[in-house]
Amino acid sequence: MNIPYNLLRSKDLTSTQKLILGLILNEPEVIMTFGGGYLKTCGEIGTEIGLPRVKVRKELDELVDKGYVVTEYGTAWRKTNLTDKIYNLNLGMKE
Question: What is the pTM of this model?
Answer without folding.
Answer: 0.88
